[in-house]
Amino acid sequence: MQLIPCPWCGDRDEVEFHYGGQAHLAHPADPDALSDEEWGAYLFLRDNPKGWFTERWSHAAGCRRWFDVVRHTVTHEVRPAPATPAPAAPAHAGTVVAP
Description:
The protein is mainly beta. Helix content is about 10%, strand content about 30%. The chain is built from 1 helix and 6 strands. The protein has one helix at about 35-45, and strands at about 5, 10-15, 20, 50-60, 65-70, 80. Mean pLDDT is about 85; it is low at about 85-99.
């Protein structure tokens, strides 16, 4: 069992999460100008380092939020991503915020 640290729910079993791929990917500024090869590279080519790697995860069976973690691709040790801002308080349905 691998524990993944959700910023909102704490450490949870990996079966509660969905992997979202490499974090911090830049979206194309002008998607219409990309060639087929450039689209292919954007959609399918990702870094595959041996060592620490920043990834996106979704807590599908919990708070359903996306967040980043840093995972070692050899040992599978998982740590919270240092650049992740502190989580904001959840917005509740029907709550009205005065200006």
